[in-house]
Specification:
Layout (H helix, E strand, L loop, with lengths): L48 E5 L11 E8 L9 E6 L9 E5 L8 E10 L5 E3 L3 E5 L23 E2 L1 H6 L3 E5 L13 E7 L10 E4 L13 E5 H5 L5 E10 L13 E5 L22 E2 L9 E6 L10 E9 L13 E6 L2 H6 L1 E6 L2 H4 L5 E11 L5 E3 L3 E6 L23 H16 L8
Parallel strand pairs: 8-14, 15-22
Antiparallel strand pairs: 1-4, 2-3, 2-5, 5-6, 5-7, 9-12, 10-11, 10-13, 13-14, 16-19, 17-18, 17-20, 20-21, 20-22
Length: about 450
């Protein structure tokens, strides 16, 4: 004969006579059991969700049955998402009892409530406390690429050398730009990568966790240190790229690396000091490039091989910047360019390497009556490196008529008038004078 449970309410009584809720269910997929938001790991939605229910007071005895119903706020029909019956006497060793909720309920991101009820044969139903469960499968910044890291203001020309490391605690502090990436949250992890390859192929060199003070009102900067050991690790100079990824607490990671931040490592200087400035073989004896030089087809910058330093497979990186004046003052934003080349066997035979600065837009077109400065860095196969002085070329694209020459307006230039011989003679004279040291190099 079934025992009478009417006098044995399944719920406990509080001091004020109201019923106390049953303990909330446990969800093993929740990352931090103490997290009130109940964030679960990304990937949880790929499997049925395990929910553990503790033993309730006065479980069914012999001849009685208790029904356990699990509810999910994402189920719009108010029907239980899982059910189990317990015929008395209940085996207490099976608790906490594991239920499985179908993964179909986990496919939409959001914050949900999870709870259960226990109902006796006498229709005495006791609900549990609700457990908040948060599903988040969106990576930080969503589908937007992260903006590049910011170099320190005192890192001159982006060059990292031993003197800088020694005066800055053997590190370079890089900071994320403001405003931060979309949906930045406390607990996000920023992983820093440092490599000559872009995107990087090696592991992260440092990590930092976003704090409350960095995402709240009047936020602090999110900065991460590039260790000196990471800078020295490759044992070579040259251009390296700092990039980063962000991983949130749920384990979602940005789809791609951030835009790169280039910096030049110069820890192994070449003997003999700085290298001579590059030349501009198309410039006239006064250092000008005009309309008849067709600058819209690009401007050649020549690097002469000196001091027996240039060898096969060495790397040369040319830096270019346009200016509004003829003397390299007042830079034009957007005209800057970086051009990387590898020394070939033919370059070694010729004794020089030519770099064509192109395309016309954006590197040259904004320069009407102005100039450009070019310099380069030689990085040896051995890992040593050295930089050059700056070479200046004057650029004048204004015709006597006042018009501006360009690919769509070549009228008035010598080449448009057919004087190709004049142009060749001018080139020859210029190169002879350059050889004699009388012209061709901007000072």
């Amino acid at each position: 004969m079934a025992r009478d449970r009417k006098a044995q309410s399944i719920t406990r009584r509080t001091g004020d006579g109201s019923k106390a809720l049953l303990p909330m269910p446990e969800v093993p997929a929740i990352i931090d059991p103490n997290d009130p938001e109940g964030l679960v790991s990304t990937g949880t939605q790929g499997n049925d969700l395990e929910v553990r229910v503790p033993l309730w007071p006065c479980p069914a005895g012999a001849g009685d049955t208790d029904r356990l119903d699990l509810f999910w706020s994402g189920e719009i029909t108010d029907k239980p998402v899982a059910t189990a019956d317990f015929t008395g006497p209940v085996d207490t060793t099976t608790f906490p009892f594991s239920l499985r909720m179908d993964k179909k309920f986990l496919q939409t991101d959001g914050q949900y409530q999870l709870w259960y009820t226990v109902t006796t044969e006498a229709n005495d139903t006791a609900p549990s406390e609700r457990r908040t469960v948060t599903l988040d499968t969106r990576p930080p910044s969503y589908n937007q690429q992260l903006m590049p890291l910011l170099l320190p203001d005192d890192l001159v020309d982006g060059v990292i050398n031993e003197a800088y490391l020694a005066s800055h605690g053997d590190k370079v502090q890089l900071c994320l730009p403001r405003p931060l990436y979309l949906d930045a949250q406390v607990g996000d992890v920023v992983d820093l990568y440092w490599s000559q390859n872009n995107p990087p192929t090696a592991a992260a060199v440092n990590s930092v966790t976003v704090t409350k003070g960095q995402v709240g009102p009047d936020p602090q900067d999110v900065c991460i240190d590039l260790p000196g050991t990471a800078v020295r690790g490759p044992d070579r100079d040259g251009i390296f790229y700092a990039t980063y990824k962000v991983r949130d607490r749920a384990g979602n990671e940005t789809d791609s690396f951030s835009r790169e931040t280039p910096a030049t490592v110069a820890l192994k200087p070449l003997p003999g000091g700085d290298l001579p400035e590059p030349e501009f073989p198309e410039a006239d004896i006064y250092g000008y490039i005009n309309c008849d030089d067709t600058p819209w087809n690009g401007i050649v910058v020549r690097i002469d091989f000196v001091r027996n330093l240039f060898e096969y497979q060495d790397q040369i990186t040319l830096y270019w910047q346009g200016y509004r004046t003829f003397n390299g003052v007042d830079p034009i934003a957007g005209t800057e360019g970086v051009f990387a080349r590898t020394v070939s066997a033919q370059n070694v035979t010729d004794g020089y390497l030519d770099v064509l600065v192109e395309p016309f837009i954006p590197h040259i077109e904004p320069i009407i009556e102005g100039s450009a400065l070019a310099s380069y860095r030689l990085t040896k196969v051995s890992g040593q490196s050295g930089s050059s002085y700056e070479g200046l070329v004057k650029i004048n694209r204004k015709l006597p008529s006042g018009e501006i020459c360009g690919p769509g307006n070549q009228a008035g230039s010598l080449t448009a008038g057919g004087c190709s011989v004049c142009r060749k003679i001018t080139r020859l004279i210029t190169r002879v004078l350059q050889t004699l040291g009388r012209g061709g190099r901007g000072k």
